[in-house]
Write a structure and sequence with these properties.
Blueprint (H helix, E strand, L loop, with lengths): L1 H8 L3 H27 L9 H5 L4 E5 L4 H12 L3 E6 L2 H14 L5 E5 L10 H9 L4 E6 L14 H27 L6 E5 L12 H20 L4 E5 L3 E2 L13 E2 L1 H8 L8 E2 L3 H12 L2 H20 L1
Parallel strand pairs: 1-2, 1-4, 2-3, 4-5, 5-6, 6-9, 7-8
C-alpha cells in the first residue's frame, strides 16, 4: 500500500489532472444518461396515427384476449382502427371483440381463433392469411407469448419446444406475409413486436424465455433496416400490471397496461426499439450501471420472485 502511495506521488501533476478530468466527464456522462432516460419519454409525442396509417384500416393483434395485447386492441380502436384479434381462447377473444365494438361503435372487430403452439404445422399460417386477405391491414402487433420460468432441466420438453415456437414463429411468418402487402399501401404501415425487458440482460432461470425475446428484438431491428418505408418498433416492457404479475399495484417500476400502451405508441414512427415507458427505461439504466455480480444476483432474485408470483 505504501509503495502504491509513493508511486502516485511521483505521477506528474498534469497526468493527475487529466485522469481527474476524465473521471468528472464520466460521472457527468452517467448523470446526463440517467436524466435523458428519465425525461426522454415526455418529449415524444404520438403521431396522428389515423392519418399516418389510414383511418378505418385494420390492425392485427396476436394474443389480444388478455394483458398488454388486449389493451392494444382498446387503444387502437380508440384511435379509429378496426381490430382483428388472434388468440386461442375463442370465448374470451369474442368477449373482448364485442366489448371493443360496444365501447367504440364505429369500429369493427373480428376474431381469428389460433393456437400459436401449432405454428410449425403445415397450413397453420395459410389458414390465418385466408381469413385476412380481403382486409386493408395497416398494422400488426405481435404480442402472443409463452412465459415459463425456472431452471431448464425442470422444464418439460413440450413446454420448452412450445416456448420457442410461440415466441419466435409468429413474428417471422406474419412479417414475411404482410410486409409485401404493406409496402404496396398508399399510407404508412407499422409492425410492432412486444419483446421483453428480459431481452436486455442475461437472465438465469429465464434463459430460454429471455433468449426468445432477444430473437424478437434483433429480428425486429434487422427488418427495420431492411424496410425503412415501414414503421417497425420493438417494445421491451418491464413490469406491467397483468395476470402474470397477479395484477400488482403500480409503483416506481410497475405501470398499468393502459399507461404502458399509451406511452409505447409515442415511439411508433420515431424509434425502432424502446422499453416503452420511463419506469422501464429507468429500471434498465439502474441494472446497466450495477457491477456484474450485483446485477446477476438481483436478476436471479427477480426471476425467482416472478416465478413465485406466477404460481399464486
Amino acid at each position: 500500500m505504501m509503495q502504491d502511495i509513493a508511486l502516485l506521488k511521483n505521477v506528474p501533476t498534469g497526468v493527475k489532472d487529466l485522469f481527474f478530468a476524465l473521471g468528472i466527464i464520466y460521472i457527468l456522462y452517467k448523470v446526463i444518461s440517467l436524466l435523458h432516460r428519465a425525461i426522454d419519454p415526455f418529449f415524444h409525442f404520438e403521431k396522428n396515427m389515423a392519418k399516418r396509417y389510414g383511418k378505418g384500416s385494420w390492425t392485427v393483434v396476436t394474443g389480444g384476449s388478455d394483458g398488454i395485447g388486449k389493451e392494444y386492441c382498446y387503444q387502437l380502436a380508440k384511435r379509429d382502427f378496426n381490430i382483428v384479434i388472434i388468440a386461442r381462447n375463442e370465448e374470451k377473444t369474442k368477449a373482448v371483440a364485442e366489448d371493443v365494438m360496444k365501447k367504440y361503435p364505429n369500429i369493427k372487430a373480428r376474431v381469428v381463433v389460433a393456437d400459436f403452439a401449432n405454428s410449425a404445422k403445415e397450413g397453420f399460417f395459410e389458414n390465418i392469411y385466408e381469413q385476412l386477405k380481403s382486409l386493408d391491414i395497416s398494422m400488426i402487433v405481435v404480442n402472443a407469448a409463452l412465459p415459463v420460468l425456472g431452471a431448464l432441466h425442470t422444464m418439460p420438453y413440450n413446454v420448452a419446444r412450445d416456448m420457442i415456437i410461440v415466441n419466435c414463429m409468429p413474428q417471422v411468418m406474419l412479417a414475411r406475409y404482410f410486409i409485401p402487402q404493406m409496402l404496396k399501401r398508399k399510407e404508412k404501415s407499422a409492425f410492432i413486436s412486444i419483446s421483453s425487458f428480459a431481452a436486455s440482460f442475461v437472465r438465469p432461470y429465464e434463459g430460454l424465455y429471455s433468449a426468445t425475446k432477444v430473437f424478437m428484438d434483433f429480428f425486429s431491428r434487422a427488418i427495420a433496416e431492411e424496410y425503412p418505408q415501414l414503421d417497425i418498433l420493438c417494445v421491451k416492457p418491464g413490469l406491467v400490471s397483468t395476470r402474470l404479475l397477479n395484477w400488482a399495484k403500480p409503483d416506481l417500476r410497475t405501470c398499468t397496461t393502459a399507461d404502458f400502451v399509451n406511452t409505447s405508441l409515442r415511439y411508433l414512427g420515431r424509434k425502432t426499439h424502446t422499453h416503452g415507458h420511463w419506469k422501464h427505461r429507468l429500471t434498465a439504466w439502474t441494472f446497466e450501471i450495477m457491477p456484474e455480480w450485483l446485477r446477476m444476483n438481483r436478476l436471479i432474485a427477480r426471476s425467482k420472485n416472478l416465478k413465485e408470483i406466477g404460481e399464486k
